[in-house]
Amino acid sequence: MQQGAGWVCAVPGVVVEEYPLAQQHEQVLRELTGNVRESADALRQGGEWTRVALALDAAMARRGVRVRAVYPRALLAVPRHAAHLRRVSEAGVSVRVLDHVPHDLMVFDRQTACLTSGEGATAPLVRVRGPLLAASFAAIYESYWQRATPLSRMSAGPHHAQLGERERAVIRLMTNGYSDERIARKLGITAPDVQSVMTALMERLDAGSRFEAGYKLAREVDPRDL
Fold it and tell me: What CATH class has 158-225?
């Protein structure tokens, strides 16, 4: 029995440990995230663990670990959680959101899985070690991942939210290679009008060129929304 575990069940190739105390959870997860080599996949309900979990995910991504995380869509309505999700996505974590996340689940290197055995912050943490059961949890995770929506399609940036219909039309035609004159003819406006739209966008995006403005917009705007 590992020190601190509430109970341990061992069969050939499988070890299941329960950690009943909340203060043990962070210790176990920090140990696992510190030792992971290739992949870490997580379902997370949010709540008290959100800030710590996001920091652990970002740290793994910086080490070159492939990290995927699914969070409840409702977190996007909480500004501080939405900001955390965007920052961890920028750190290299693949983040998706789902209408309902049933429980916390983490799978490390397809060898170890952690899940909560109840609801709330005080629910015991269960660690399952061994490829036999871990592979099953990995398959469950994959089914949720495939149904979830990428964060990039859900959390449009502030510049995207401010785009007007004319701006969207100009951006759409510009990305299709249209010149200012052709855009103007297509939209029934003048070339100086097109240039004014682009100048305003560059100022709003703090971009020094059209290329930079296009790059920044590409990071925020799904082309299907234009």
Answer: mainly alpha
